[in-house]
């Protein structure tokens, strides 16, 4: 009896990240699919290193003109196409060539803000986008409203789960440090992200350095990342600059820190929130971090702070500092529970539910 032909899944991507590769690997192994990914170069600010299995075929976007890209895709013959937005004209040409013979899914992580640019897009989108895409996939509720306004009906809109952390990896970190933290909870906050104004890192530094020794009670702040505000990094024995760390090298940092914080001014989603929920961290997030709408319940596994407000961040820091260690451990367990709402397995299941 002939073995069924493997389904071919094509990703037309911009900047790849480790969590995306983990999802692709899960798709390839869970359903024995053949995964093809066209992608842009690695961002120097987040220089992720990838190691692909034999199930994933990797193509550099810069090596293909639009015509060559269309030819490549015809040779692949995908059964499903996943496209990051609508900015790359070559990607759109591929979608038009496929002409809806297979599901062609546009991903969208912009939440509806009602800006002039978005309102113009909602006038054009229903007529323009649907010549390329059959479906739209968003990460969560804040993003679904925009997709609906672009003309994607309920049966053509996947309203959650577009992004998933590598939950298995980060849950392993949780299990590895669980007993250590239960014996002696580390009084250290951890920030993970670019050192850029948009991420709220400047206000975080202002809030933390404004704590008196009596208020701080020995707590520290560890920052993992790099960026243009590097020169402003505070000179303080209680704040540590760890630099950019690869996801598979995070184990020590997660074991030695206790509370995650992301005080961003604005975040389309914020996948890192999911990662630290899976790692069992109590969390502080700004109200404009959209991933927190799924992975943070105020007062249960952390606290919300106001964006662009050092005083609000300081208030949230003090709430954590003044919490009992047992309460912080319970918050971490709640984070782990919430992290299971979206997983690479569920991500793969969503894709395969659309494959003909």
Looking at the structure, the CATH topology of the largest domain is: Rossmann fold
In the residues, how many domains can be counted? 2
> Ends: how far apart?
22 Å
Q: What fraction strand?
A: 15-25%
Mean pLDDT: 93
As laid out across the biggest beta sheet, the strand order is 3-2-1-4-5-6-7
- Quaternary form: single chain
Helix percentage: 40-55%
State the total count of DSSP E strands: 13
Q: Quickly give the CATH architecture of the largest domain.
A: 3-Layer(aba) Sandwich
Structure description:
- By secondary structure, this protein is α/β, with parallel strands linked by helices.
- It has two domains: 8-165 and 343-354, Glycogen Phosphorylase B (Rossmann fold); 167-339, Rossmann fold.
- Helix content is 40%, strand content 15%.
- The chain contains 14 helices and 13 strands.
- The chain has helices at 18-31, 66-76, 89-98, 116-128, 141-149, 167-183, 201-209, 213-216, 251-256, 271-278, 292-295, 310-321, 325-339, 344-354; strands spanning 8-12, 34-39, 56-60, 80-84, 104-107, 135-137, 157-158, 188-192, 220-224, 239-241, 259-262, 283-286, 302-305.
- The strands form two sheets. A seven-stranded parallel sheet has the order 3-2-1-4-5-6-7, with helices on both faces. The protein has a six-stranded parallel sheet with strand order 10-9-8-11-12-13, sandwiched between helices.
- β4, α3 (89-98) and β5 (104-107) form a beta-alpha-beta unit.
- α2 packs parallel to α3, α6 packs antiparallel against α13 and α10 packs across α13.
